């Protein structure tokens, strides 16, 4: 292979103190902000150029390296892939944005609307007018303030409750189509000594994962709600569905639906519990199907996704696709743009997503994906299931980590749903004020 790979394991303190500048070694001048689409550079090999890429270890996939090799074979451009430990990646990436110590390409797990620290107008190249943007199924989903800042070269993960169809069939339980039916299923599972829902509550993010549907439902009733929340004219504690979602989490635990000790359950533990038939329902996402199949062959055929029937939510959570960003300070901006256009060529997209085995955010991609993911995608495309977006992508000024931890406290009875909702309003107010939102 003609690319390097490094594992960055140094501590945050070291990262902040060292002048570790990850840039390419070419002689291209940085592009101006919002520069026009670059011309095709693939006709002129750049054999002395190495593009540096930084990403979390968990984001690194064989499909990426195959794509890099194709571009190297065509242009001579090589790649230096530098991976961060998953448990430190978020903080290291924040530090890089704070210190402007960038590679040529920064892979991050969310959009600039969700991660305020990215400050796109100041630090990222505007990609709105790049040719591949029109290939996106819904480009508005990847816009912030009307602009596209990253290439969503990742799968479109869809989240919902993952039903263990083998367990449900064993106890003659129909696949739930509403919250009432889900609760009846939980009762039947509990009566048969099967843990109804494996939530993995020890990992805070699993608790918060299903809460954004309540915000989406409220916005459908009041389209002005995002603006009201961003200008301190409305509060989360005033959203009935949000409070009822937290109340359901507590109720699930109180009724024993989450097992004897949900706070000892983890994301990793869910794999075995689901595969071995010890849990009837889990919290799943479409790319998870591949992971569980590798660890427990034959399990993928037992999975069926349904909406997060909790609070007043009836929709599937469409997670933010990971995106590839170009820092303005990069020395190889035009070459990176050319690589992005190369990656978005139809044959390359088909090969990439077939390798990734994931739903693509790009149009007309022909790729093989697991049957459970395909079935869910078909239901969404037919309109049988609708989707919702995350808190962070709907309303500015969020503290998602704080929200997840509040959810944990509600589950174990440390806070009432109402008190937790009000505390989240206080958390949001501090963040909103710090980023200059009007009214805070």
From TrEMBL:
Domain of life assignment: Bacteria
Coiled-coil annotated residue ranges, if any: none
Gene3D superfamilies recorded: Periplasmic binding protein-like II
Keywords: Signal, Sugar transport, Transport
Protein's UniProt keywords contain Transport: yes
SUPFAM superfamilies per UniProt: Periplasmic binding protein-like II
Signal sequence segment: 1-26
PANTHER family: ARABINOSE-BINDING PROTEIN-RELATED (PTHR43649)
Name used for this protein in its record: ABC-type sugar transport system, periplasmic component
